[in-house]
Sequence to fold (142 residues):
Amino acid sequence: MESPVRRIRLNDPEAPQQPVAAPAPGWLRFAGWFVPPIFLGVTLGTLVLLRRGPDEFFVGVLSITFALPVVWGLISVFFPAYADRRCPECKGLTLDSIADDALYGLSCSACGYVDESATAWKFAEERDAPLEPMVLKSRQSR
Ligand SMILES: [Zn+2]
Fold:
């Protein structure tokens, strides 16, 4: 007669694999420092709003909240970012992309510095050429 108790053997226990997080970009590592002051500011603003009521302080905060993205947009439109042409080796303003239709790769015409992995996106944007063929070519080459 077969036993009603069935024995099973489990695998030997293994340590759970810890997920390895990708390193955060440089600016994101410092973004965490702004979270406590923002929360503190929100808390203080809420206390001021509760004590004084919805008066000009609330209107001021609301105006700043809506005006800040508009001001940031205007700054971005009238003062756009330009490609950094300073060579990391010779410090001259002679850096350019490797090819006219390349989205990656920088070279210096003065010292011969070449970095094939650096992004040349800003140089491509400055040429006022359509970017879509360059992106499609970049995708096909990868
Ligand atoms: Zn150089």
About this structure: The chain is about 45% helix and 10% strand. The first strand starts at residue 95 and ends at 97. The chain has two domains: 26-78, 95-141. The CA atoms of residues 33 and 117 lie 30 Å apart.
